[in-house]
## 1
Amino acid sequence: MEQTKLEKVINILNEKGYTEGQIAYFVQNLTKTNFARAYVEAMATFTKEDIAKIENTTSQEQADKIIAEIYTQRTGKNANIEAQKFIEVFCEGFLKAYEKTIT
């Protein structure tokens, strides 16, 4: 099975001597950045009623589900697919930059 671009990035970090903790921190921050990007895009389309609906949820999981649903309704995009695209683009840039350093 072919490696994903993120797996390739992680392998490079391992080869460069980064610890598992540092790599986990990197992936966690990449995920947070990705979520923040999507959240900002979504919030730009939310109405006061949407925000009230989100704030009245009983769990973060429920709020995330509502945010994703509203995001899809307002933007016509699937939040999960957009998240995957963000990670792919980031990893492509990382891999291209890395290739320049070794050639």
## 2
Amino acid sequence: MDQDRAREIVQSERLQTEPEYFPFTKEAVDAIADFVTQDPERTLPSQIIALLSNAVVEAWRRRDEAMPDAIHVLVDEEIANIVMYPEEL
């Protein structure tokens, strides 16, 4: 992600994250990092990309429900957990 553009988005939309984590919160990044390192298969780039993509899609779905006018929705720890542990739903 272009950090200048991320900074613009975070500031203009008053998102509760730092540009280096956008479109995630720091807590979501930390949770995902912990999850990935718990199993060697999860460290495969294809697995990490799939996990991050699924999290972004889940955030986008929630935008429609909770914030129909929102442009960007952050992947927070709750969304990360839903994607990482779908069997617990």
## 3
Amino acid sequence: MKTTIKYTTFNREDKNDKMQLYKMTSARESVKVSDLAGQTITMDDFVIFDREADDGTQTTVMMFLYNGNMYGTISRSFIDVFENFINAGFDPEFAKTVKIGSATSKKGRTFLTAEIV
């Protein structure tokens, strides 16, 4: 399995941050972001990375720390908000406060939403 970090608010030069970054990108379990739907939170730090499985399939993952817990999601609608913000030239540090929501698609599926505040 190969991991490629795309964006992070962690300081890659700091030993403790590097260890936390490793733990987050190799984690197999986390709290579901959907548990925070309806809340506005300020994350401690986050990382967005691509994980490539042995069969070549690639998944984009976002993990973040909040209130001592590690949260994770593969929701494209949620992750796209952060990637678009950063790709527009904004500092990832300004994306730490976010209103988390959920919506229902035309097909009846629930998905995550995010609004940077």
## 4
Amino acid sequence: MRILAAAVILIIATSTAAGQSFERSESDVCSSDIGNCRAVARELVSLVEAYGYRCSSISFINKWAFSRGFTIQCNNFAYEYEVKDKGGRWVVSYVD
């Protein structure tokens, strides 16, 4: 049952995130150390939305240098989220 629920969440989040747009050019949105910007953006937005947060457009994505995680800013820099690896699970939190 847990696998089925995870698959449903992934399908919903992926279909929602597929239409995401970058507010600026791809090279301006992603930090230089992110290889496939569009794929990373899709996955991060899927996680953000799976946690119930909003991200209709992507302002900036930054990969953390000293730990496993990302900062993503959405909706013309209105929302900022941290997506971090905690014990092998990706956790999303809103940054005030």
